[in-house]
Amino acid sequence: MSANEPLVLALPKGRILKEMSPLLDHVGIKPEDAFFDPNARQLQFATNDPGLSIIRVRSFDTATFLAFGAAHLAVSGSDVLMEFDHPEIYAPVDLGIGKCRLVVAAPAELAEREDPRRWSHLRVATKYPNLTRRHFAARGVQAECIKLNGAMELAPRLGLCRRIVDLTETGSTMVANGLVEVEHILDVSSRLAVNRAALKTRPEPVNDLVERFREAARAA
After folding, report:
1. Stated pTM of the model
2. Distance CA 59, CA 55 (A)
3. Domains plus CATH for the chain?
4. Per-residue pLDDT tens for 35-67?
5. What is the residue-wise DSSP string for 130-190?
């Protein structure tokens, strides 16, 4: 992108947008009205700052747009950043929103006799195969990962695997599907991340936004 073009901030669709609103207000970024309309078909939005536009994309795509330079900054979950693990991404600010945790879960009857310390090999369904393999490899456990993008809780019920690795906030969805958390992998929150090339080529506007978001996160 040309240095004369507006910076692009990628934001994830879904519940994080609601949590982002107070931070955007604090930073002084006001998107055009269509941005807050869930039925709006457009994906790129102007803001009150002519030097900044916003794109609204799937949460897992924020890191891809950022890593390959289509966005200069992004709000992305730490889970997504760790799964993608791209060297071109730098995440300097924990925004303190979108908090949840990544866990291993199993059917209640299996969980009663589970001892994660005795695992040597396991098959799991997950949206996070790279993160999952790294986690278990660090413990000397071989993880066979079946990639699913949704409906994770169905996998044990239908015999696809016995365990899943997934995000949970309250655990209620897992309980409703007969699953129990058997191991905590990591805590997750949303981060402000930047493209390293943009940080080098346009340091002043990028760093200005980083500092404004850092202050907004402190004030929240």
Report:
1. 0.91
2. 11
3. 7-98+189-219 (3.40.190.10), 100-188 (3.40.190.10)
4. 988 788 899 999 999 999 999 999 999 999 999
5. HHHHHHHHTTT-EEEEEE-SS-TTHHHHTTS-SEEEEEESSSHHHHHTTEEEEEEEEEE-E
